[in-house]
Each structure stands twice: as C-alpha cells, then as structure tokens.
Automatic annotation (TrEMBL):
Protein name listed in UniProt: LacI family transcriptional regulator
Database matches in Pfam families: LacI
Organism: Ulvibacterium marinum
SUPFAM superfamilies, per database record: lambda repressor-like DNA-binding domains, Periplasmic binding protein-like I
Residue ranges of domain HTH lacI-type in the record: 5-59
Keyword check for DNA-binding: yes
GO molecular function, one term: DNA-binding transcription factor activity
Keywords, ordered alphabetically: DNA-binding, Transcription, Transcription regulation
C-alpha cells in the first residue's frame, strides 16, 4: 500500500540522515549515485511529494506570481491571463489571481492579501478609464514600496492592439519582464 511520506520517515527507512535524504532528493553532487538511487526508490515507493511551503521558506521564494485583473469574465482579460499563465507554467511558477471588479476597495484588499510572503512578484492590470486618481496613487505607492511588480494600463494597450493573439503574447512578455526583476 502506498502512502504519503516525509523526509524524516525516508531517513529512518533508508538509514541516512535527513540532510543526506534532502540532498539526494535535490540531486546534490555531495551524495553518491548509489545513495541517491536507494533514497529515490524509497521516495517513489511511498509516493513522496516535496512540501512546497517548506521549500519556499528555505529558499525565500514562493515561485508564485500574483495577478490582479479587473474582471474574469471579459474576453480580453482572459486572453491576457492565458498568456501569463502559459509563461508561468513554462517557468515553473504558480499564478494566484484575484479580480478587482474595477473597485478600489477590492483592489486594495487583493493587494494586501499578497503581503504575507506568498508571492514573489505582482502584476496589476488596471483599466485607467474607470480608475480614480486616488486609486492610481494608491497602486503606484504599493508598487514603489513593495515587492517587484508591473502595472498594465490595459485600456490604452487594448485600444491600440486588441487582437487575442497579441493580448496573449503581451501576457507572456509581461510575465518574462517580471521574472527578470526577481
């Protein structure tokens, strides 16, 4: 019977220390191929899955990007999000998405939710036609004082470029730009 197992249990079963097990599972050159094989066999047998929260704590990287968009239901935002998500998956990042509904309170709430270390960077999509100067000032302040982030004025961009393919490609490029900032 297969069950979930942790590094401590693999160490016990293999006879190696937790440190050696961790190094073997992370393919460290400090561990022999014979030891890696033995440890990986136990890990595979018991369906070992690394704890992504523990890895994030150790590396100080969550491998997650936050995305705040005005609406999920609008096609143009869906194309943009699709491009961002494709690039995130390709670069082994997760995407945490919130919608602001063009509402300052909702956008502030979404931004605050990300300040717990759960993301490495933030993409904020705004529709400036509906944004007040107060909202723009608030978002700009957050972007200046916090984690790496990019703000997209989507209404201006959409007016000039609008096709689904260019919108999707824009999402990919924005994601690449943000990852370079990390």
């Amino acid at each position: 019977m297969k069950s979930e197992i942790n590094i401590k249990q693999i160490a016990y079963l293999s006879g190696y220390s937790k440190s050696t097990v961790s190094k073997a599972l992370n393919n460290s050159k400090e561990v022999s191929e014979k030891t890696k094989f033995k440890i990986r066999k136990i890990a595979d047998t018991y369906n070992y899955k690394p704890n992504s929260s523990a890895k994030a704590l150790k590396s100080k990287k969550a491998h997650t990007i936050g995305l705040i968009i005005p609406e999920f239901s609008k096609t143009q935002y869906a194309h943009l999000m699709e491009g961002i998500e494709e690039e995130a998956v390709r670069k082994k990042y997760r995407l945490a998405v919130y919608q602001s509904k063009n509402n300052l309170w909702q956008k502030r709430r979404s931004i605050r939710m990300f300040f717990d270390g759960s993301i490495d960077g933030l993409i904020i999509v705004t529709n400036e036609r509906f944004a007040s100067s107060c909202e723009i000032d608030y978002v700009n302040q957050i972007l200046e004082d916090s984690l790496p982030s990019i703000k997209i004025n989507f209404s201006d961009w959409l007016h000039n470029n609008g096709s689904p393919n260019t919108t999707k490609n824009m999402g990919k490029e924005v994601f690449k730009k943000l990852v370079k900032m990390l």
